[in-house]
């Protein structure tokens, strides 16, 4: 009997230990440790007692990693270890701000608070997530909830799939959230004629070579948006964001063609150009690149998030594309649509390649050769040697609620990136939120914010004419 009980106990312990993927290991190491901070701005105030029930009964059951800690197995390899009773209260913080401030001041306090906790390490003796309940107004609501989650738990898709399971529609909570179309056309496997095969192979070789160089020795130029400082990921950050209506984006897209992502890339190009002009730094002659993160699940042919959720592909499935930034002279009178056309051309060229399809096998080979720490070094260097990172999330079209509280707006950032500048975009309820995370004592966040606003306004007027508010 004792032997049977011993075997059952051993089996239970083995089941409680889950292997950690090389990608998750590489994003939670002593070399690089990334966290995702999602800010949900609510129209009504949510208290900590409501959030405890919400996390315990909704969020934790929807994602197994929310009830796991990082452990080391008998071979010394990091793994996930199941925690039977997660003490949700230990993960919740309620910050105290000064009383009597204006909404503008409280909105700034919220950004300052998010910047502060972005630089703090998650506790390693409990599951790698925190919840911060902010009971003060902001420009989009009466309160906020900040989710801080280790990137090792999963990528943006893993987080958004949890939100789809946990959040509800305001108009009818019994109905599921509408799941947006995520289909993508990558030309690498569409046209199979011999005339197209050779340039695709050449593009693939070029993309792979550029990626390897950026992950090793080839470093972007220092500029007004890239300090090149060692340990920049530990410097204080500032956050600026603008909201753009999807209708305005679609109007511009109908005039200039391409995709919404092409348009946003053009806005980012133009923002960088305007900021460097304002700072007296000419980009011409410099080597500048964006590191664009790409969801590899979409290459499997899924048409919407619902199909990916049914496939239950958790973890980190992201590849990075090194995308050059157009560097031009300092003339003030530059056509804003130039940056959109350059983005379209560059992204079409990137799609006309097999690079994305060979990335995952290549990462597996690198992991076998160099291990997870070697992969961490490659990831860190790839970020460090480029000017800025760009990543995005696709949210629901309808107005949604969290624990019965209507959501006014949402945005997210990725902390711990060894860059002076990074961009995140999130589309929610007919709005796209473009957020820039900056090295606080190097980039002027107020000036950069005005450049982001000006960039889209100028692009809209050049494409559609008239005032963007019309």
From TrEMBL:
Q: Enumerate the catalysed reactions.
A: an acyl-CoA + a 1,2-diacyl-sn-glycerol = a triacyl-sn-glycerol + CoA; a long chain fatty alcohol + a fatty acyl-CoA = a long-chain alcohol wax ester + CoA
Q: Coiled-coil stretches, from where to where?
A: none
Q: Which domain of life does this protein belong to?
A: Eukaryota
Q: Could you name the Gene Ontology cellular component terms for this entry?
A: endoplasmic reticulum membrane; plasma membrane
Q: Where is the O-acyltransferase WSD1-like N-terminal domain?
A: 78-263
Alphabetical UniProt keywords: Acyltransferase, Endoplasmic reticulum, Transferase
Q: What is this protein called?
A: Uncharacterized protein
Give the species this sequence originates from: Aquilegia coerulea (Rocky mountain columbine)
């Amino acid at each position: 009997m004792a032997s049977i009980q011993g075997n059952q106990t051993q089996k239970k312990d083995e089941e409680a230990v889950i292997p950690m993927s090389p990608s998750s290991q590489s994003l939670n190491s002593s070399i690089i440790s990334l966290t995702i901070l999602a800010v949900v701005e609510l129209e009504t105030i949510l208290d900590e007692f409501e959030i405890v029930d919400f996390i315990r009964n909704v969020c934790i059951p929807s994602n197994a990693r929310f009830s796991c800690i990082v452990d080391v197995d008998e071979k010394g390899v990091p793994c996930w270890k199941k925690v039977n009773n997660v003490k949700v209260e230990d993960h919740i913080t309620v910050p105290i701000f000064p009383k009597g401030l204006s909404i503008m001041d409280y909105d700034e306090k919220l950004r300052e608070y998010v910047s502060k906790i972005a630089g703090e390490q998650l506790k390693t003796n409990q599951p790698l997530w925190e919840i911060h309940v902010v009971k003060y107004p902001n420009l989009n609501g009466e309160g906020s909830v900040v989710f801080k989650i280790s990137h090792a738990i999963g990528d943006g898709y893993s987080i958004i799939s949890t939100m789809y399971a946990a959040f509800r529609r305001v108009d009818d909570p019994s109905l599921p959230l509408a799941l947006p179309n995520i289909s993508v056309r990558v030309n690498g496997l569409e046209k199979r004629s011999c005339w197209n095969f050779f340039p695709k192979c050449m593009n693939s070789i070029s993309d792979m070579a550029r990626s390897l160089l950026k992950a090793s020795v080839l470093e972007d130029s220092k500029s007004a948006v890239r300090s090149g400082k060692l340990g920049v990921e530990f410097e204080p950050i500032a956050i600026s964001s603008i909201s753009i209506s999807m209708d305005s984006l679609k109007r511009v897209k109908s005039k200039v063609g391409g995709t919404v992502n092409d348009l946003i890339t053009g806005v980012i190009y133009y923002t960088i150009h305007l900021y460097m002009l304002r700072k007296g730094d000419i980009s011409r002659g410099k080597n500048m690149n964006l590191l664009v993160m790409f969801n590899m699940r979409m290459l499997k042919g899924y048409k919407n998030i619902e199909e990916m959720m049914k496939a239950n592909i958790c973890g980190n499935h992201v590849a990075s594309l090194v995308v050059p930034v157009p560097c031009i002279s300092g003339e003030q009178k530059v056509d804003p649509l130039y940056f959109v056309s350059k983005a379209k051309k560059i992204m079409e060229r990137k799609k006309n390649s097999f690079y994305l399809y060979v990335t995952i096998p290549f990462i597996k080979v690198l992991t076998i050769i160099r291990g997870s720490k070697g992969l961490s070094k490659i990831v860190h260097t790839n970020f460090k040697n480029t000017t800025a990172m760009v990543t995005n999330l696709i949210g629901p079209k309808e107005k949604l609620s969290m624990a019965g509280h209507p959501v006014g707006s949402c945005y997210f950032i990725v902390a711990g990136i060894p860059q002076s500048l990074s961009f995140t975009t999130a589309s929610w309820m007919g709005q796209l939120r473009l957020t820039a995370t900056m090295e606080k004592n190097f980039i002027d966040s107020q000036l950069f914010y005005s450049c982001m606003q000006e960039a889209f306004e100028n692009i809209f007027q050049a494409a559609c004419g008239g005032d963007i508010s019309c």
